[in-house]
Amino acid sequence: MSANLLLRRGRVIDLAQDLDAVADVAIEDGRIRAVGPDLPPPPDARVIDVQGQIVSPGFLDIHVHAYGGLAFADPDTIGVNLGSTVLIDAGGAGAWSWDEFAATLLGRTRTDLYLWLMLRAAGIYGTDPSERIGRTLIDIPINDMLDVIDEYPGVIRGVKFTMYATNGLGPAWIGKGVANVLGLPLYVHIGEIFDKPDLTYTAEVLDLLEPRDLVTHCYHNNPGRLLDDHGRLLPQAWAARERGVLFDTGHGAFNFSFDVAERALEQGFRPDVISSDLQQANVLGPVYSLMHCMSGLMAIGLSLHDVLRRVTIDAARAVGLDDRHGSLLPGRVADVTVCRLEAGEYEFEDSSGGRRPGRELLVPVLTLKGGEPIQPDRGPAEDFTNWSLEGAISYDAVPDAATQLSPRQREFIGGLARACADLERWKGAAIHQRFRRVQQDSGIPLRDALLATLDCFLTNRFYPPIGFFLASLDRDLVLSRLAAVAADRPASVRV
Amino acid sequence: MSSQPPPTSSAAEWHAVLPAEEIPAGAIRAVEVGGLPLVVVRLGDRYFAMDRWCPHQEGDLAAGRVLGKALKCPLHGYMFSLENGRGLNCRGYTARLHAARVADGILEIRLA
Fold it and tell me: Which domains does chain A have, with CATH numbers?
């Protein structure tokens, strides 16, 4: 049970209750007991003076990469450590890697973690075009997806689909159809970040979407943007909004342009939700944090209320979680973000080379998760060992952790080495299938099998989908390393 | 990934590029060696030479930033190790490195 708390005399902004006033927040047994002026402290409460600071419902960042090949060693470093109490991973796992996500991360973070389930079964790591994943119906295991949703109700908030024109419009229809079968919203990435095709399908995709569906990267400036060549919002974007389709920013390293955002805002097209798209590639800029993205939007005209609403109650409603997140109503779990507006001369970067000056920066001061105080700290998020999966790979020597495997894990590693030795194609899907066969035949728990395999190659805990991670490494390295670990030859080096 | 243009001179040859003192510590300097656009970075007493154009989408690394022992592309934040060229936050991408040394106060580069 967490200690009782009283946050004294902060500027409490809870837009779900139309509240912006100096008030106290009383927290008892990890839940909000009351919000109001001059409250008596709950029994044995620690009193924290937050005068001059903003006290908000915990922030939701509905687009981050918390799992998979783009993600961090520790998702809490971009969650509660940066003031976000809820994260939604955007497609790190698909139906094939969902149980790996569950075995490695789910329920093991302080930050509440949800998922946009990738339509592509491999999740976001499996992007090898030669495997044609996502381009054929047979690779979208709808029954498996239904099982996943039944097994963990509520964790999956929708189906993520990436609209890339090189695949044509067909996958968009499939994605929408699958989301309908599953009874979930579709979460659509728009914007051509890999190719520069002449023909794009953003307008057509917008016409497919229904109420509760969401479009991410709404202010990107790649081919397939929401503006036409004259800078006017596509009529399909307005029509989609009229129908109840929602738009979020998903800043990212590729997907946010001040020029586009300003043109859209001039026309009255505001985002419904602000999200960061934090991942390995952008935590050291241009994204930095959700609060940094919010501050950048304030620099081009959004108000403090505008940005707070879009990461609290509006974000919670957009993803169907407003019954538990996004407000400080009495009885709710005490997820609270305390931050302050720091005055100064700042420059905000977008992901198209654009920069804008700003005079205010939102800075995290304190996070409460279920009433537990957490001191925000950017350091762990920015630490090399947290954001570089590549840097964690030990190419030359067996990592120490691999010398500590249990006999059962070592036996599993030996079985995996033998099972992969005769693979004709060193591809993620094939390795994934062999891994699962060996794991299931041996009866070893999935988590134990995953950790043992990752320990053979990584010096830090990262959780990439295993088949696709192994496929990204040199075949000889993988096979020789697995054999060395299975034989308990820790001193072995790469053959 | 983008194709690498062939160097126009012998790869094994050391090219005198510029006085080493003209490269401040931590700065990125664009140079051309044997017709190949490169960037040079100095960390303390060590010098590193890398292809100028990012292997991802040809961002100009000369306009990037040095973070620790990595060079960060200004276009998408992809970071490349100055030690081995590997993409640190973008698995699968590697920037080409070239040998660099200082002889008699002159920075010399040998193309890979």
Answer: 59-329 (3.20.20.140), 388-486 (1.10.10.350)
d(CA B47, CA B24): 11
> What's the CA gap between A368 and A349, in Å, rounded?
29
Is the peptide bond preceding residue A286 cis, with omega within 30 degrees of 0?
Answer: yes
- Split at pLDDT 50, 70, 90, the class of A153 is confident
Contacts (Cβ under 8 Å, ≥6 apart) of A421:
A479
Note the pLDDT tens digit of each residue in A231-287. Answer: 999 999 999 999 999 999 999 999 999 999 999 999 999 999 999 999 998 999 999
Instruction: Please list every residue in chain A whose beta carbon sits closer than 8 Å to the beta carbon of residue B79.
Output: 281, 284, 388
> Which structural domains are found in chain B, ordered by start?
14-110 (2.102.10.10)
B60 touches chain A (CB under 8 A): no
**Interface residue B87 vs chain A (CB under 8 A):** yes
Mutate to test the interface with B, among A72, A127, A220, A284 (most CBs of B within 10 A): A284
Contacting residues of A for B67, CB less than 8 Å apart: 284
Q: Per mean pLDDT, which range of A363-372, B1-10, B89-98 is the poorest? A: B1-10
Q: Does B84 touch chain A (CB under 8 A)?
A: no
Verify whether the Cβ–Cβ distance A472 to B77 is below 8 Å.
no
Instruction: Count interface pairs A-B at CB distance under 8 A.
Output: 44
Q: How far is Cα A427 from Cα A134, in angstroms, rounded to an integer?
A: 15
Mean pLDDT of chain A: 94
A150 closest CA partner among A184, A186, A110: A184
- Residue-level pLDDT at A495: 41
Q: Does A126 touch chain B if contact means CB atoms closer than 8 Å?
A: no
> Do residues A250 and A216 lie in contact, with contact meaning Cβ atoms separated by under 8 Å?
yes
**ipTM of predicted complex:** 0.75
pLDDT digits (tens, 9 = 90+) for A158-214: 999 999 888 788 889 999 999 999 999 999 999 998 778 889 999 999 999 999 999
Q: Which residues of A touch B86 (CB under 8 A)?
A: 390
The candidate with the shortest Cα–Cα distance to A293, out of A214, A238, A215, A346, is A346
Taking only Cα atoms into account, the Rg of chain B, rounded to an integer number of angstroms, comes to: 13
Name every residue whose Cβ is closer than 8 Å to that of residue A91 and which is 6 or more positions away in sequence. Answer: A68, A116, A117, A118, A120, A123, A124, A160, A162
Residues of A in contact with B75 (CB under 8 A): 353
The average confidence (pLDDT) of chain B is 89
- Which among B67, B77, B88 has CB closest to A282? B77
Q: Tell me how close the Cα of B51 comes to any Cα of chain A, in angstroms.
A: 20
Tell me, yes or no, if A68 comes closer than 8 A to chain B by beta carbon. Answer: no
Given a cut of 80, whether residue A42 has pLDDT beyond it is yes
Nearest to B91 among A253, A286, A389 (CB): A389
pTM: 0.92
